[in-house]
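Re: the multi-chain job from yesterday

Posting the exact lines I submitted so nobody has to dig through the queue logs.
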Amino acid sequence: MEVSDTIAFIWAVLIAVAVLAYVLLDGFDLGIGILFAVETEAEDRDVMVNSIAPVWDGNETWLVLGGGGLFAVFPLAYATIMPAMYPTIIGMLLALVFRGVGFEFRFRARSRRGRYWWDMAFFGGSLVAALCQGLTLGGLLQGIKVYGRHYTGGWWDWLTPFSVLCAVAVVCAYALQGAAWLVWRTEGVLQARVRRHARVLLFAMLAGIVAVSAWTPFLNEGFMIRWFSFPNIVLVSPVPALVLIIALMFWRDLHGSRDYAPFLWVQALFVLCYAGLGISIYPYMVPPSLTIWDVASPRDSQLFLLVGAAVLIPMILCYTAFAYWTFRGKVRAGDHYH
Amino acid sequence: MQIGDPAVFLARLQFAFTVGFHIVLPAFSIGLASYLMVLEALWLRTKRQVYLDVFQYWLKVFAISFAMGVVSGLVMSYEFGTNWGQFADKAGPVVGPLMGYEVLTAFFLEAGFLGVMLFGLNRVGPRLHFLATCLVAVGTLISAFWILSVNSWMQTPSGYTVAPNGEFLPDSWFHVIFNPSFPYRFAHMVLASYLSVAFVVGAVGAWHLLQDRQNQAARLMFSMAMWMATIVAPVQLVAGDQHGLNTLEHQPAKIAALEGDWHSEPGQPLILFGWPNMQQERTDYEISIPHLGALILTHTWNGSIKGLAEFPPEERPYSPLVFFAFRIMVGIGFLMAALGLTSLYYRVRGRLYDTRWLQRVMTFMLPAGFIALLCGWVVTEVGRQPYTVYGLLRTDDSHSPIGLPGIATSLAAFAIVYLIVFGSGFTFMARLIMRPPSVGESGPPKGVPVRTAGITPLPSLDDGVADPTHPQPAE
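And the result, structure tokens for all chains:
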């Protein structure tokens, strides 16, 4: 590999990690919003929101890094994926607007009705954002039509049964993340209830994983070869086995005394699924036609930002950890001042 | 107005709408974060309650504006791809990394410490909390640095080469970042943010002084704001003048359009008012002062500038819009400076808090800074047309392959959502600033309780830090 190709590969890994960080961190924020559907008591909702209020903004910033980073180092991917996924991206952004202001506004609304509507905005924003992210994932996996340097597909290409399946799976998975986070950060009746939600959601997420995994190889011959040809099948077969093992660990710890453990297992499940997606897609950035190297910006652009990223990302991880550490521990009802 | 391709026009309208809403919020955050930093520093130094009260008062407003800034900024970071795909593809190698640096150096910093700043005073203690406030404030300035560098590069590109496929390639990052208009634009924008916030704070202080002349927090706000007006508004006039001269050098068509000058003539007059007529290539109903334009723009008596008619029609920005936006901006700038000097006069005479008419005028000045700021952006962005990258990449060659129905639908969706969300947000902020600041002002809603059953027993930490705020229970 030439130096510029290596740099592009490193950037592909970094962008993938940024998106993974987003999914791991904002996924449970969105999950908490989605759980508003079944948690309707005002006091419980306050606790749920307060458990993430100090950190959600940093979590969402990984999405900005994913988008901004794509623009910076893979501009052609940015310029083709965004128009191809136009409705789902715009839908996600608008949903995140409602979700983001919901944090502040629901505490600021004076009337019960105002409060109700901003709770709905927080819930709806979280749900629609998750759906749109799932649709985008599905749309990307099934492929984007590109000719030359432009998206040439239609307006509704992204909407297929497969992308809808992905959307549902993502919603269930985020909700499970949210429930696991709340098992860790809450106590008492609310905690007991979210444990029950987590049980149901685990099966929903596993069903989603199985369905998406079974469907993906049929989307594209490349995916089929990647997973089922010899010797690949030997190399990749530990992935599904690990999913099963982690699901069992989750189940065990969900009923144990280590409240933080289920959350970590869910995150591990996400990492595995993400790795699976990576195995399917690599080396494409815009499947089925553009690889990482087709869409990479020139070496100077990539190198310039890489130098900064190498220094800054470890710093970001440190102070993000500091923020989480500052606000650690169980969140209790009635301890906030409005 | 030149509408051209309706899909491109609507895409432009969408960008103008979303960035117009957005820019107000970071500008507010830049100014307010610095103000909060100063207040907290003064509180730590003097231990006077009033500084903490004013800090807490504005912190609540900051929380709302920051949340709105984050979500509207997220939209911007994806809109380059959704609506301006060709621009993203061609200019991405140059401006993309700058925006990447903005995310890495500014957004994470702000977001990482915002939680501590809003909710963490009781948890981390005053000193660490002050550090968090400083880092958020510095983050807002770093963010301004990068994004204004990007914008300035689009205005006055330098340090690049153009590849055969039309891609811009970086040649010298130093010249890309510190392109010719960047220092001027950066100074002008940061000063504008400071002034806009000063006039918001001054207006709120004035409003509460009119209700209660003895309110110490209101007196502090008013006094600090008027100091800013006295000192910063004249500085801003100078900065604006310098920025204008820089624009004349690099974007003469923009200057001709904002002056309403169609033809070059010795001793260029300054047109005060009129109506630039794009078809007839003249400014109708003009009222002008001979030689003044030459004096301002060339600093000579008989100087002249290139008129708009001397540029080919397809190279001209739409003059009426920049012409009026420029006049509103400059008018507000002079008004601000005049108010600043007036307040100095009364301050010297010891009557700052007793001059009711000044306070009444100040209450009306609340949105003035933001109106001027938006007008300034209209001048610079509309004045850059018909290009996205000035002189190199035309707006008509920058858009994504999205059809008219798509753009129209998303524009409508943005309009509806923004009006609901930002309408509500501004209402919440208005409610907060209508309430007089009180002694022992509480902070923003506490996100997390002080006592916890965390892994480390936290009470041991809390013991060392006396709760300095004594948050008042429920409002």
